[in-house]
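Re: that backbone. Tokens:
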């Protein structure tokens, strides 16, 4: 997470004018449905484009446990994404082993610390592909 709730509120209020650019990279807002509560959870995440898709990384700073948003989308891959003022529905999936090397390189070019995070854990940090489902 970046700034958490404050980041989400500022991003939403300004259509990303505040919060899209973050520490030299870009952020989107991912909304998942809680796997236990069913409530909506908004998470600011670093992203990059890959064709028509959006990529995010479930790193949690290299923690041994994955972030809760990743567990949520594993339970229900139908998510909402906001990039600047564009809000849309998407389906989230974990990159396949064949896709991951290329996608990991894209993400580490945007945020080199992902390589360091991977050295901190035995967990394979996944790259998530967000495939737009609504116009």
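Recovered sequence:
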């Amino acid at each position: 997470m970046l700034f958490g709730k404050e980041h989400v509120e500022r991003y939403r209020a300004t259509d990303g004018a505040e919060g899209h650019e973050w520490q030299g990279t870009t952020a989107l807002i991912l909304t998942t449905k809680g796997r236990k509560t069913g409530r909506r959870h908004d998470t600011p995440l670093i992203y990059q484009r890959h064709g028509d898709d959006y990529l995010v990384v479930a790193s949690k700073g290299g923690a041994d446990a994955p972030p809760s948003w990743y567990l949520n989308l594993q339970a229900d891959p139908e998510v909402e994404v906001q990039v600047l003022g564009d809000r849309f529905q998407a389906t989230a999936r974990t990159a396949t082993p064949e896709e991951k090397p290329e996608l990991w390189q894209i993400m580490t070019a945007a945020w080199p610390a992902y390589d360091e995070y991977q050295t901190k854990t035995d967990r394979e940090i996944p790259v998530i592909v967000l495939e737009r489902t609504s116009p």
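The longest strand covers residues 25-33. The helical segments are 5-13, 68-75, 100-110, 113-119.
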